[in-house]
């Protein structure tokens, strides 16, 4: 496929017009300052995170063993189908089930589900399902499933960040990320990573710290208006799950991978980056395809890394400035990392919303003939995707709206943390100036990337 | 209770504020884009009157486009003819419209289509994974 932009996809968004850019940037600035002065004085999020329990019959159905079994079997089935089609189906990217399923349905659909419904990955993760089944079989045989090695808290979420980076590097830096065999090898490798980690360190530990998707969807699910508390489903205000500090090491790097990769994806489709890649490829013009691919991948990975590092560095600088302004005794790094989660979610919506709606439709055709062998399993093989389903201006409105909502949510969460941290209201306010600057940078930067040609 | 009610009120005001500004800006935004659209259509009317196609020529040397990536903007509904001459054998792929055509070493590939879908589209040498053109279709 393409050496730039998301792993798959044909119709790309037109750049956001300049008028949108300036108006939204102005709104972002004004709203930021209004909120800074007008927001609440006592922390609200953490005390509201528990929400209200839903009626217990509903809770019982949603959390029932039967439903869990059905969903987990479904997930394992899909993993099997994706692996089989990727390895043995057609080698034409868009006629094979796996690339569209992995890059569009899975990678764009699950964040959406997590943000709206909560942590659905806990029952939709095929790897978790396989681990659960293995433990069940072991226990049936009278043996106890115990982790082989102990986990050290110091490792934090770095393994998960590494896993997610590997995935986004495949998606955004590889010369042909949607080539079915490549997708197949990636699925196999990632399955090994997920299953081996669970076997060695235990299911729960690896889900929390090592399985990149579980951590990503878990963080996004904290935005959701639903959660599970003490065996019951609770409804709560959106974003309340993001209150408090996040002391798990590596969380900043993890969120930086989420934010940095989406922004790099935006940057990769600008003519600036297209020209850089063109120059690199021109430089190796006489060489074999392999050399050109390697050079392209190398340059892409370098830029992707720079974007991730850029996000982490700007955050560290802002937090350092906040600490200096309030003369805090300890580092504030764990305190303001969760406000970046809604911004990461907003970036994903802004960049991938149209791709999901347009490219996602192809799954209806693909599911009927996943190997491209002329089958018609569900009678949907003739389904004609509507590639003009969203007009360019709808896309622009959704993009700027997502960025503004993410920005306001991020600011509010940071503010809530500040008033929880500092008894002195003026200190709380002072700590928020650098955070405000940081979020304006992320939001206007994201907007700027969307408006580039 | 009191605190949370005030929060809701404040948030509500903020949302209204953003919404209002957004609505106000749509008028402005719409105006700005429509003027640029009329300009664009004016320049291309001479072509569309006789339904002449916009020809995009790409010269591929050593597996990459000669000079820079070729960029072209057309209006929705226009005809586009992509002419690629290449010294390397490969497959030309127009993304989104999903049209592929093989080109032999030293050969020329012609791809003609009507630009019915707005957006940005990459044209690439499929096997080398090299982008050669960037087509923008204005709504």
Q: In which order are the strands of the major sheet of chain A placed?
A: 1-3-2
- Which structural class is indicated by helix and strand composition of chain A? mainly alpha
Number of domains of chain B: 2
Catalogue the unreliable spans of chain A.
Answer: 1-5
Shape by Cα distribution of chain A:
globular
**What is the CATH T-level topology of the largest domain in chain B?**
Immunoglobulin-like
What does the radius of gyration of chain B come to?
23 Å
Distance between the termini of chain A: 21 Å
Strand content of chain B: 35-45%
Round the mean pLDDT of chain A to the nearest integer and report it: 92
Class from helix and strand fractions of chain B: alpha+beta
Per DSSP E runs of 2 or more residues, the count of β-strands of chain A stands at 3
Mean pLDDT across the residues of chain B is 74
The share of residues in helices of chain A is: 55-70%
Could you state the oligomeric state of the chains shown? heterodimer
In DSSP terms, counting alpha (H) and pi (I) runs of 4 or more, how many helices of chain B? 1
DSSP helix fraction of chain B: 25-40%
Q: Order of SSEs of chain B, N→C?
A: HEEEEEEEEE
Q: Specify the biggest β-sheet of chain A.
A: 3 strands, antiparallel
Describe this protein's structure.
- The complex is a heterodimer of chains A (453) and B (139).
- Chain A is mainly α and 453 residues long.
- Chain A has one domain (18-451).
- Chain A contains 18 helices and three strands.
- A three-stranded antiparallel sheet of chain A has the order 1-3-2, covered by helices on one side.
- In chain A, helix 1 runs antiparallel to helix 18 and helix 9 packs across helix 10.
- Chain A is globular, with a radius of gyration of 23 Å.
- Residues 1-5 of chain A have low confidence and may be disordered.
- Chain B is of the alpha+beta class and 139 residues long.
- Chain B has two domains: 1-49; 53-138, Immunoglobulin-like.
- Chain B has one helix and nine strands.
- In chain B, strand 1 and strand 2 form a beta hairpin.
- Chain B is globular.
- Chains A and B meet through helix 1, helix 13, helix 14 and helix 17 of A and helix 1, strand 2, strand 8 and strand 9 of B.
């Amino acid at each position: 496929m393409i050496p730039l932009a998301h792993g798959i996809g044909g119709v790309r968004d037109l750049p956001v017009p300049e008028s949108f850019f300036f108006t939204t940037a102005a709104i972002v600035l004004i709203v930021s300052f209004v909120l800074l002065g007008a927001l609440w004085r006592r922390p609200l999020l953490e005390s509201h995170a528990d929400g209200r329990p839903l009626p217990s019959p509903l809770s019982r159905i949603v959390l029932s063993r039967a439903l869990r079994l059905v969903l987990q079997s479904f997930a394992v089935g899909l993993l099997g189908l994706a692996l089989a089609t990727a390895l043995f189906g057609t080698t034409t990217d868009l006629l094979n089930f796996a690339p569209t399923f992995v890059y569009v349905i899975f990678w764009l659909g699950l964040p959406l589900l997590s943000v709206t419904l909560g942590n659905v990955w806990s029952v939709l993760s095929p790897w978790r399902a396989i681990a659960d089944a293995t433990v069940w079989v072991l226990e049936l045989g009278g043996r106890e499933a115990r982790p082989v090695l102990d986990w050290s808290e110091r490792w934090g979420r770095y393994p998960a960040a590494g896993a997610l980076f590997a995935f986004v590097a495949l998606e955004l830096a590889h010369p042909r990320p949607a080539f079915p065999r490549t997708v197949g090898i990636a699925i196999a490798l990632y399955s090994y990573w997920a299953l081996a980690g669970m076997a060695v360190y235990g299911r729960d530990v690896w889900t929390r710290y090592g399985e990149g998707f579980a951590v990503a969807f878990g963080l996004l699910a904290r935005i959701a208006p639903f959660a599970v508390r003490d065996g019951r489903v609770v409804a709560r205000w959106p974003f309340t799950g993001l209150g408090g500090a996040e002391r798990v090491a590596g969380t900043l790097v993890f969120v930086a991978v989420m934010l940095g990769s989406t922004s790099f994806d935006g940057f990769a489709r600008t003519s600036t980056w297209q020209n850089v890649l063109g120059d690199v490829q021109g430089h190796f013009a006489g060489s074999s395809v392999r050399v050109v691919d390697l050079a392209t991948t190398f340059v892409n990975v370098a830029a992707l890394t720079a974007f991730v590092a850029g996000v982490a560095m700007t955050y560290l600088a802002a937090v350092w400035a906040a600490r200096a302004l309030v003369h805090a005794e300890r580092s504030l790094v764990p305190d303001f990392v969760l406000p970046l989660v809604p911004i990461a979610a907003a970036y994903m919506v802004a960049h991938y919303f149209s791709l999901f709606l347009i490219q996602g439709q192809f799954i209806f055709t693909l599911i009927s003939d996943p190997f491209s062998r002329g089958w018609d399993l569900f009678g949907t093989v003739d389904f004609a995707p509507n590639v003009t389903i969203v007009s360019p201006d709808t896309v622009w409105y959704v993009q700027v709206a997502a960025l503004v909502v993410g920005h306001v949510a991020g600011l509010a969460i940071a503010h809530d943390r500040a008033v929880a941290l500092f008894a002195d209201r003026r200190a709380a306010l002072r700590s928020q100036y650098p955070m405000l600057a940081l979020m304006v940078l992320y939001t206007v930067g994201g907007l700027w990337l969307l408006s580039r040609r | 209770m009191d605190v949370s009610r005030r929060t809701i009120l404040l948030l509500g005001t903020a949302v209204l504020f953003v919404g209002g500004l957004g609505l106000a800006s749509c008028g402005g935004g719409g105006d700005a884009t429509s003027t640029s659209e009329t300009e664009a259509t004016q320049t291309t009317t001479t072509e569309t009157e006789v339904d002449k196609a916009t020809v995009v020529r790409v010269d591929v040397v050593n597996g990459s486009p000669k000079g820079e990536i070729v960029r072209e903007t057309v209006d929705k509904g226009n005809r586009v003819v992509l002419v690629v001459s290449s010294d390397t054998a490969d497959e030309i792929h127009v993304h989104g419209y999903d049209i592929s055509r093989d080109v032999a070493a030293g050969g020329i590939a012609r791809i003609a289509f009507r630009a019915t879908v707005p957006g940005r589209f990459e044209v690439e040498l499929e096997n080398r994974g090299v982008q050669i053109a960037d087509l923008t279709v204005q709504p």
